[in-house]
UniProtKB/TrEMBL annotation:
Residues 32-61 are annotated as: NMP. This is Adenylate kinase. Belongs to the adenylate kinase family. The lineage of its organism: Bacteria, Pseudomonadati, Lentisphaerota, Oligosphaeria, Oligosphaerales. AMP binds at residues 33, 38, 59-61, 88-91, 95, 165, 176.
Length: 220
């Protein structure tokens, strides 16, 4: 019987970093659906061949296929021994219902669904902090919060004026947060209703402080 964890959180809240720390600390295996898809394709399994065919035709990989891959991965001994942090599944309520069916069959338990919350201002700051050097011979990347150039707006290496890509613009960031919010709210309500949701606040503080909050949240 394995403990299953799911972390939900907006882009910029540190979900990836916190998940990595959690897995290192607890021994839980990090399983992302993207990696599962690549592994199945690389192995040439029946599922992998179906996925390859869908992708080649530009079609979406259905919930059924993703659920089948997750179900298969959960039977493996490393997960039975150490537990698992699922990344990328479930994203929707129908997927959450599929996961619930999978766990009922496999005998594994949903240990917690952790909702990582953060202030919009912090998220916007993080999502819009990247700057690039437009010089094709240089292409240095900066971050105005964590890795700023010595002189504001100027590349340290070549002196070119730094630019902000449209991916990192306020408009794109707002769009990403809105999509996250719309997709995730029903899932939050679903797990709240099942009494499986725990919450933590991710702040603009050292990573280990946020990680301490995560551990405290999971203990509750
Ligand atoms: Zn440069």
């Amino acid at each position: 019987m394995a403990n299953v964890y799911v972390f939900l959180g907006p882009p910029g809240a540190g979900k990836g970093t916190l998940g990595e720390l959690f897995c290192r600390d607890s021994g839980a295996i990090h399983v992302s659906t993207g990696q599962l898809l690549r592994d199945e394709m690389a192995q040439g399994s029946d599922l992998g061949l179906q996925v390859k065919d869908l992708i080649a035709r530009g079609a979406l990989v259905s919930d059924d296929i993703v659920a089948a891959m997750v179900a298969k991965r959960l039977t493996q001994p490393d997960i039975k021994a150490h537990g698992v942090l699922l990344d990328g599944f479930p994203r929707t309520v129908p997927q959450a219902e599929m996961l619930s069916t999978i766990l009922a069959k496999s005998g594994d338990v949903m240990a917690a669904v952790l909702l990582i919350e953060a202030d919009d201002a912090m998220l916007m700051g993080r999502l819009t902090s990247r700057r690039m050097c437009p010089n094709k011979q240089c292409e240095a990347i900066y971050n105005v919060q964590t890795n700023p150039p010595r002189q504001e707006g100027i590349c340290d290496r070549c002196g070119a004026a730094l630019i902000q890509r449209s991916d990192d613009s306020e408009e794109t960031a707002r769009g990403r947060l809105k999509v996250y919010d719309e997709q995730t709210r029903p899932l939050v309500d679903y797990y709240q209703g099942k009494g499986q949701l725990v919450r933590m606040h991710s702040g603009d503080v050292a990573v280990d402080v946020n990680y301490g909050r995560l551990k405290a949240a999971l203990k509750r």
